[in-house]
User: Fold Secreted protein from Nocardia ignorata.
Amino acid sequence: MTSTRIARTLLPALVVVAGTLLLGAPTAAAESVWSYTCTTVEPNFPDIVGTGCTAGEDAPTEGPIDGEFVVTRPDDGARWICSSGMVAGDIVEGVECDRRR
Assistant:
């Protein structure tokens, strides 16, 4: 009977801790996604090529992009989420991109 009482007392705390761990991880991952703003984006499904691009904070400006990143075209608000790509100066090439509005 005592072990049941202890379990009932600790269960809410364990649920809160587990929820915090599960919900905290995606938030941290979402904050680390790089972004680029491009004046022109040419889709070639499922890839894109953006020109006149500006890298967001901490985003690389040269070389491969290993991991998910976002390309935004400010004139109409169109966004693409790409799984990987390459950046060279103001040109961004995205691979396997999905368009989002």
Observations:
- The longest strand covers residues 62-73.
- Strands lie at 34-44, 47-55, 62-73, 78-88, 91-100.
